[in-house]
Write a structure and sequence with these properties.
Blueprint: H1 3-37, E1 46-51, E2 60-67, E3 69-70, E4 83-84, H2 86-98, E5 102-111, E6 114-115, H3 116-130, E7 135-144, H4 146-151, E8 156-159, E9 164-166, E10 171-172, H5 178-184, H6 208-233, H7 237-241, E11 249-251, H8 252-257, E12 263-264, H9 267-277, E13 284-289, H10 294-306, E14 328-330
Parallel strand pairs: 2-5, 2-13, 3-4, 5-7, 7-8, 7-9, 8-12
Antiparallel strand pairs: 1-13, 6-14, 9-11, 10-14
Helix pairs in contact: 2-3
Length: 337
């Protein structure tokens, strides 16, 4: 056999080996993705041991963290802060309910609030979970507005004395720039199908009937928030309306005195309460985390690589609103916007 034939044979063998290795890797990755997803096809959250339990104890307290601005999408973030979406919280609560070893849920909230609908979605998930297993919310540095809204779905609420909470209210913003346009000689031409279609346009002054209309939308969302707090805390809505439900921010101690939380303490106290309510004194505490599969990580890396680089420069010094115009938020009034 001449050297050319030998070389071709070796090349064919190397190519076959590479193809075989590639197929095996693809199959392994697919199996790993299926295993991570679970039998129902959903991605299963991983558990990290936070606190060991008693010897040979199988009972668990599932800790779930809600961190950052509450928003319906986790892309980007308002005011440069982390974003907490409903999807992870819902998935974590569902997994905790399905796990028979989980006797209670410890939901740590560290959030100034966020979008109205996203907050309401998480609240509904917490309330649903609390109907089947005890859910204890621990308020960390901040659980204001939408963060407090979420906590209203829990079985019990624990706040640190230094927690900032409350801020029961709704905010909606738009920017007015028609005076600036007049000075520089600019104008917009808008064609609408109805008198209220461009209500929040900053290119013209707002009419009085538009102010009444927008305020009515805000009031409707506020009444829902107020009703949820009244039901959760067993207090008359009118008492709350004339007192702490005027948008003010409270410390954990003040919230306890106002009846908005059940006790003050640290996260260890909230954990002990979860064990008590779950009747699992020897339970270990596990923290749920989302760990993307290898295929998911590769897909995310590819998407980020293909996404064009965008640089934003804020020349306003933070003086312009950062909230999405026309969207309602559960946020405290003192956050930079």
């Amino acid at each position: 056999m001449n050297r050319t034939a030998v070389g071709c044979l070796i090349g064919a063998l190397v190519l076959a080996l590479l193809v075989s290795v590639g197929l095996n890797m693809a199959q392994s990755m697919l199996l790993l993705g299926q295993e991570a997803a679970g039998l129902d096809g959903r991605e299963k959250l991983t558990e990290k041991l936070e606190t060991p339990g008693g010897k040979n104890a199988t009972d668990k307290i599932a800790r779930v963290d809600l961190e950052g601005i509450i928003a319906s999408t986790e892309e980007g973030g308002l005011m440069g802060m982390a974003v907490a979406g409903p999807d992870f919280i819902k998935r974590a609560l569902e997994q905790a309910l399905e796990d028979t070893d989980v006797k209670a849920v410890l939901l740590r909230v560290n959030s100034p609030g966020g979008e109205v609908t996203a907050s309401d979605t998480i609240y509904a998930a917490v309330k649903k979970a609390a109907e089947k297993k005890p859910v204890v919310v621990f308020m960390d540095s901040m659980a204001a507005s939408g963060g407090y809204y979420v906590a209203c779905g829990a079985t019990k609420v624990v706040a640190a004395e230094t927690t900032l909470t409350g801020s029961i209210g709704v905010i909606m913003e738009s920017m007015s720039y028609h005076d600036l346009f007049d000075k520089v000689g600019l104008a917009t031409r808008t064609f609408t199908s109805g008198a209220f279609k461009d209500t929040l346009s900053g290119a013209r002054p707002m009419r009085e009937d538009e102010r009444v209309y927008v305020q009515g939308l805000v009031n409707e969302m506020y009444e829902r928030f107020l009703g949820i707090v009244a039901q959760a805390r067993g207090k008359p809505a009118e008492t709350l309306r004339g007192g702490v439900a005027d948008g003010r921010v409270l410390t954990g101690r003040q919230a306890l005195e106002a009846g908005l939380v059940d006790q003050v303490g640290y996260i260890e106290d909230a954990c002990a309460l979860a064990k008590e309510l779950g009747k699992a004194p020897e339970a270990k505490v596990v923290r749920y985390r989302a760990t993307p599969s290898l295929l998911g990580a590769l897909g995310l890396a590819s998407a980020r690589a293909e996404k064009p680089l965008k640089v934003e420069l804020d020349v306003t010094g933070g003086t312009l609103p950062r909230l999405t115009p026309g969207m309602m938020y559960f946020l405290p009034p003192w956050l930079p916007r």
